[in-house]
Hints:
The protein contains 13 helices and 29 strands. By secondary structure, the protein is α/β, with parallel strands linked by helices.
Amino acid sequence: MTEHAPDEQAPSASQSYGARLADLAARDPERPALICDDAVWTRADFDRRANRLARSYAELGLSQGDRATVGLGNGLEFFAACLAIWRVGAVPNPISARLPENERRAILERAAPRLLIGVEAGDGVGIPSVPAGFEPAADVSDAPLPDRIAPNERAMASGGSTGLPKLIVAANPAVYDPGFASAVFQAKRAVLVPGPLYHAAPWSSAWQGLFAGCTVVVMRRFDAEHTLALIERHHIDRMGVVPTMLHRIWRLPEETRNRYDTSSLEFVMTGGAPCPAWLMRSFIDWWGADVMNEAFGPSERIGGTFITGREWLEHPGSVGRPVGGATLRIQRTDGSECAPGEMGEIYMLPAGGPGSTYRYVGAEAQQSADGFESVGDMGYVDADGYLYLGDRKSDMILCAGRNIYPAEVEAALCAHPAVRSCAVIGLPDDDLGQSIHAIIEVEDKAAAPEEAELQSWLGDQLVHYKVPRSYEFTAEPLRDEAGKVRRVALREARIAKH
Length: 498
């Protein structure tokens, strides 16, 4: 890839997302904007494709303020679709392209989109749809469109505490202000995006890189060695990863890791799950304390923390102190504030106050009387105000940076005719953070279904990463008379045993 210097005359005023990228295309049309595999789109390519798609989407009924569900995998087409949605003045609702039908339909019920992109038409009765690979008619113009501002940047899907999906609708409109752009996501030359674009951190990393005038290199799916090859090939200076990715890179043979030139890296941020201290230290030793960083914060943007590699060496294991004007406190179950070093539930308050960063569709926020909010994370702060994460308050399983809700997996398992009851828990895993383990209650252990049968059963109902990796069978009751199951006790017993 040819290196390009950053734009030196970037406008200082706020612009709609559509206008920002149109302005960049006008100033340097042949500069690479997006790269995926061997495909390269210049800024002009990106701009024209989005304009044509926007006109086609509008013809299908998408208009200002509507939502459009985007079920496309990582690739250039995803970016063109989202930019086109913004140029109509509508709101993207990105979802996994690999969701099973029942889960996808549950999200669509909450999103109520006016257009489906890359989603089967049958999933949304009466909703217009375009398939993956859609191309507008040849006579559709690629000329500039009237400037429109979507009322919300995005409407991301997430699981609820009951396993039912919810939407996290961002409060901010689709407007880019270079004076307030997050330094966490701003690349200088090129940013590598190895994670799924329907997740908050990869989404922000990619779009903020584009708005900053940089080249975005997106991977269709993560591969450890290919990541190193892309860093070398495209002189990547910024990258966001989850700890599982770091772990898989580190587990490559040393001669493989050292085969690639990664000296262009200036900023690597890990998040999405706590990074094991040994792994963070290993990468600090390899890539340097000035390169490695860690962050914590929910997709709701109610607050977050950040720590540099140099700070981390002084506070090993920490995910940093609050950033962005947010306030953080640790609470006991009675609502009182924990002392330094005492584990409790993490509550945060954004700088703009309660409700200033998002709203739920399909769920209710967990707020304290004074507006502080929790999404169920546990942790403690040290005397210097640095946060250390603990287990989740809920039974959520954090696997490879993804939130897995046991109730959803259990519901699918319990639909199997041989399953009397079940409990799904997360067990420690050096690679994934937590591995999904299913305890199956059956009438007769001798007649228990084969694991392969359960894998096939769940594969038709759940996205692949929610399918358990291990199973055990029992004839003992898993739930009490009230139908409650103590997942924490089940998990602790298995950890102690193994």
